[in-house]
Design brief:
The complex is a heterodimer of chains A (114) and B (870). By secondary structure, chain A is of the alpha+beta class. In chain A, 60% of the residues lie in helices and 14% in strands. Chain A is globular, with a radius of gyration of 16 Å. Chain B is built from 27 helices and 21 strands. In chain B, strands 1, 2, 3, 4, 5, 6, 7, 8, 9 and 10 form a ten-stranded mixed β-sheet that branches. In chain B, strands 13, 14, 15, 16, 17, 18 and 19 form a seven-stranded mixed β-sheet that branches. The chains are: A alpha+beta (114), B alpha+beta (870).
Chain lengths: 114, 870
């Protein structure tokens, strides 16, 4: 996990779902921008890696897609979160928060020892 | 749930590939343009903006690739791709594909067909409970009734036993009277077999008594055909052989005991029984120890072998005749008895078809190996372009699979047509041949064999080539593979030659036997002779009336338009064994001085009609009746009776009154062309008193078949209820008598021919490969002054050496194997040197012919071009 480029797929999928949940339907570029902005440009991904993730989510039925027109009148494919995607997001968010909580306690222990 | 859903949509992705592909391209293009636009808004130049966008996106192709991997099922897609590639590359070398697929398909098809027949006829067990305990018991083929009664009473090894004998029923009808094949059987026979009637009952022991025996059981097919499957048939009375019989039962479909000629007492073709009446032995039959008129069926006690039963019964018989020497009693399993005669030919055919399949596999192995090796360069290029070794092997596998699949697809219709053809070609009297259908087990086995062959030999070269460093093969071009694989190929070609020589020798021996049989002087001229059989029931005609009718019929048929001669005979040649007579010279009182002859009653004109030459003397005349007893003897009988007298006309045989010899006829092969000549005695019908069976023979000027109706009409003018059966051309009887030989002979020729062609393909493939491989070497030789003839010679010599080595192995194998042909051989030794030599020579000649094309190709090479050849 060197510097800010590498993000593993599962996390990326979660970010994609969260972005769609928060902002409604988005095209691939929009999702990529949103992830960069939300992370305060700390997290830079190769935009290309997004597409296999989107495909996987679509195959799992967590997102749906249709062709539409972007803000500047360009044809683009828009992704939206589905009901099943929302459930997945909720479950994974809980899971992630628990993991984060546990990790936080560990780090707290370490700082006590210091 | 999710993984499942994902799998499904991936599977769907297999089929929507091209649309998704263009959508993805559009989507990525849009993405990059949007970013480019944003970048320009940030103040970059257009070129910078686009470059930055592309950088941000990462590898476009890499993205597409990983997207694709997720979209479908990569393994399946690769598989499909490989399959398509395999078919494409097979299409690109149609010669190879056709040779390999055809030889496999023919091999598999033929093996399936023959095995299906052998399985149905030989291996499948009889349709009775515990069939292995059923045996026939005989004293040399038949048995007299008292012997059965004795064995039944004293034999501990038999659980129960029954007598049976074939029997014809004349069944009158509105349209055409029918003659139904049937049997007289002991009441216990059905229980012994373990078969229950479909309708009604079988015989009670009370009905198995002379005088109370006017009941019949009929077969299912007859019930449906003649009685419209009438469920109320039981109790109905029918007239059979001019006596009333009550129908008491109908047997289930498929019951046909006895079937085939093999375990009937009557010799000659006898169709499966359709009607049964009680045995009801008459008094003289119960006591006549010399009347070998019956067959005996028995069920052995559990655990008793036929051998043990034979020993026990022989002992009983020996005590009965006060210790005189006797032949051991024959106890033969019913299955063996049913399949007896066809066993040898079928086993031979099985063996030959097995060999043929083996040769086909060897051939395909050879072709695949050659092809694999030729693709060394291609594989090297693919390896260096980054193909994994596993992918290369996988592709080889796919090609093998494609080959085997094509072969299987073709093989199935081959097998089906083969079975139909074989059943049609098969001689009469092969039991259960009508039930044959393609056997899926063998088909699967043959397919597996083909698959295994293709896989092993398809992958071996791929493995060999995949193992080497890509550079080596590319540097060395096509010449890298020498040594081991080409020795394997030579061995395969040698094996092919050896195996096909075995088949070649076998078929040559059979052909030679067949030719020998055809040259046998048959003793009559079968062309233009129409024959048919009749049976005058004793209940309706006494001896006198019968003689009169027979004479009248022969006479009336003789004057039909187009007829040049007509006669009646008690037993027509080739339709069964004539009655045996012990013939004694008049005045010879020694009881042991007799010749066992076969006797035939004939009407005047018989010899002229059949075309049997009279060596001396005359035919019978109408004046040879009652008091004036005369006979014609066959040449063999004359020789055996009067060895010193070449023309014993006027000599007399013992009889009351004595019989004068008035003519000597040439010998006839009346019990089969391959049977030994028997002595024959001919007497006029007027002096004959054995039964009402006889045949008509009518010689015509034109096509005899057109006369059948007219002759039948003549018969029915005399007796409306008289069935006329076995209407046949005499020539057909002759052909049928050798059919049991023609069948395996024709098939074996086919197999041998096929395998020789395969061997030739093998040799051709091997040589053209080696010529292609050695193009440069040949060029150098020619540049150095080698003559074209020397080049050709070398290649032909190569072919010869392969064929000769193969032939030597083949000869050795054939030497041991041909004796298995046994009874199929006639007039030729199993190890006839001339035939062995001729076959070996033929094989070498074929090898030379096969080598001509590659040799000429080599001879036409231009030295300069060869040296440049890469």
């Amino acid at each position: 996990m060197e510097d800010k480029t590498a993000v593993w797929q599962g996390t990326l999928a979660l970010m994609v779902l969260q972005s769609l949940e928060a902002l409604g339907p988005l095209h691939g570029y929009g999702i990529a921008r949103r992830i960069e902005q939300t992370s305060g440009d700390l997290l830079a991904i190769n935009h290309g890696t997004l597409y296999p993730v989107l495909l996987k989510l679509e195959q799992e039925g967590s997102v749906g897609s249709e062709w539409g027109v972007s803000d500047n009148n360009r044809k683009a494919k828009f992704y939206r979160i589905t009901e099943s995607g929302r459930k997945q997001l909720a479950a994974e968010t809980r899971e992630w928060e628990r993991t984060a909580g546990i990790m936080a306690r560990f780090f707290a222990l370490r700082s006590e020892a210091q | 749930m999710k993984p499942l859903r994902r799998t499904w949509s991936r599977f769907l992705g297999l089929f929507t590939g091209s649309r998704r592909e263009s959508e993805l391209s559009d989507e990525i293009a849009a993405h990059i343009e949007m970013q480019t636009e944003d970048n320009r808004k940030l103040g970059m130049t257009p070129a910078e903006a686009r470059r930055a966008a592309l950088l941000r996106f990462g590898g476009v192709e890499a993205t597409k690739e990983s997207y694709r991997d997720q979209r479908g099922v990569p393994v399946l897609e690769t598989l499909a791709k490989d399959m398509r590639f395999a078919f494409r590359s097979l299409r690109k070398s149609p010669d190879f594909a056709a040779a390999a697929i055809l030889s496999l398909a023919l091999g598999i098809g033929a093996a399936t067909a023959i095995f299906s027949i052998a399985d149905t006829v030989l291996l499948r067990s009889l349709p009775y409970p515990e069939p292995q305990r059923l045996v026939t018991v005989s004293l040399g083929g038949a048995i007299p009734a008292p012997a059965q009664i004795l064995f039944q009473r004293e034999g501990r090894s038999l659980e129960r036993s029954a007598l049976f004998t074939s029997y014809w029923f004349n069944l009158p009808s509105q349209s055409e009277p029918e003659r139904i094949p049937g049997a007289r059987v002991s009441a216990s026979l059905f229980d012994l077999l373990g078969v229950k009637p479909e309708l009604g009952r079988t015989f009670t022991p009370e009905e198995d008594v002379d005088g109370r025996d006017k009941v019949v059981v009929i077969g299912d097919a007859l019930w449906k055909r003649r009685f419209g499957a009438d469920p109320g048939i039981l109790g109905r009375t029918v007239r059979l052989n001019d006596a009333p019989y009550t129908i008491i039962g109908v047997m289930p479909p498929g019951f046909r005991f006895p079937e085939g000629p093999e375990h009937h007492v009557s010799v000659g073709p006898f169709p499966p029984a359709e009607m049964w009446r009680p045995m009801a032995l008459v008094e003289w039959e119960q006591t006549c120890m010399g009347c070998y008129n019956f067959a005996m069926l028995a069920r052995l006690r559990r655990g008793v072998t036929p051998q043990q039963a034979s020993t026990e019964l022989s002992g009983i018989l020996k005590r009965q005749v006060h210790g005189e020497d006797i032949e051991p009693v024959d106890v033969l399993s019913l299955h063996r008895a049913v399949t007896g005669k066809v066993r040898t030919p079928l086993v031979i055919l099985l063996a030959s078809v097995g060999l043929t399949l083996l040769i086909a596999c060897v051939n395909v192995a050879n072709l695949l190996l050659a092809r694999g090796l030729r693709r060394g360069e291609e594989i090297a290029i693919r390896l260096s372009l980054g193909a994994t070794r596993w992918r290369i092997v996988q592709q080889g596998l796919m090609e093998a699979f494609a080959l085997a699949c094509c072969a299987a697809l073709l093989a199935f219709p081959f097998a089906w047509a083969g079975i139909r053809g074989l059943v049609a070609l098969a001689p009469a009297g092969i039991p259960r041949i009508g039930d044959v259908s393609p056997d899926p087990r063998l088909f699967a086995f043959a397919l597996l064999l083909a698959l295994a062959t293709s896989v092993v030999f398809g992958i071996t070269p791929a493995l060999l080539l995949a193992r080497q460093a890509p550079g080596t093969a590319m540097k060395a071009g096509t010449r890298v593979i020498g040594g081991a694989p080409s020795r394997v190929r030579a061995a395969l070609v040698v094996a092919e030659c050896a195996l096909s020589l075995v088949l070649l020798v076998g078929s040559a021996l059979l052909v030679r036997s067949f030719a020998a049989i055809s040259r046998v002087p048959i003793g009559f001229r079968p062309e233009h002779v129409l024959t048919m059989q009749l049976s005058l029931p004793e209940a309706r005609y006494d001896d006198h009336a019968r003689t009169a009718i027979i004479a009248q019929l022969a006479e009336r048929c003789g004057v039909l338009p187009g007829v040049t001669g007509a006669a009646a005979v008690s037993t027509l040649p080739l339709t069964g064994e004539a009655e045996g007579w012990g013939v004694r010279i008049e005045g010879d009182t020694n009881r042991d001085h007799f010749v066992m002859a076969r006797a035939r009653a004939v009407t005047p004109g018989y010899f002229r009609t059949l075309g049997t030459r009279l060596i001396a003397g005359r035919e019978f005349a109408a004046s040879d009746n009652g008091t004036n007893r005369v006979a014609v003897v066959s040449a063999t009988l004359a020789r055996e009776l009067w060895p010193g007298d070449p023309q014993p006309l006027g000599r007399r045989l013992q009889g009351r009154p004595p019989i004068t010899v008035v003519g000597i006829a040439e010998d006839t092969h009346a019990s089969g062309l391959d049977a030994e000549v028997r002595p024959y005695l001919y007497i006029p019908f007027s002096q004959w008193s054995s039964g009402g069976e006889f045949a008509l023979a009518i010689r015509t000027a034109g096509n005899p078949a057109t006369l059948a109706r007219a002759v039948k009409a003549e018969v029915w003018k005399i007796d409306r209820d008289q069935p006329v059966t076995h209407v046949s051309l005499m020539q057909k009887l002759v052909d049928d008598s050798v059919a049991t030989r023609r069948f395996p002979t024709v098939l074996m020729i086919l197999f041998a021919g096929f395998s020789v062609v395969l061997a030739a393909i093998g040799i051709y493939g091997m040589l053209s490969y080696s010529v292609a491989q050695r193009t440069q070497e040949i060029g150098i030789r020619m540049a150095l002054g080698a003559q074209r003839s020397a080049v050709v010679g070398k290649i032909v010599a190569h072919a010869c050496s392969l064929a000769v080595v193969g032939a030597l192995f083949g000869l050795a194998a054939a030497w041991r194997l041909t004796r298995l042909l046994g009874s199929l051989l006639f007039g030729v030794a199993a190890t006839e040197v001339a035939i062995f030599a001729a076959c070996a020579a033929l094989l070498v000649a074929v090898a030379i012919v096969a080598s001509v094309i590659p040799a000429r190709r080599a001879a036409k090479l231009e030295p300069v071009r060869c040296l440049r050849y890469e």
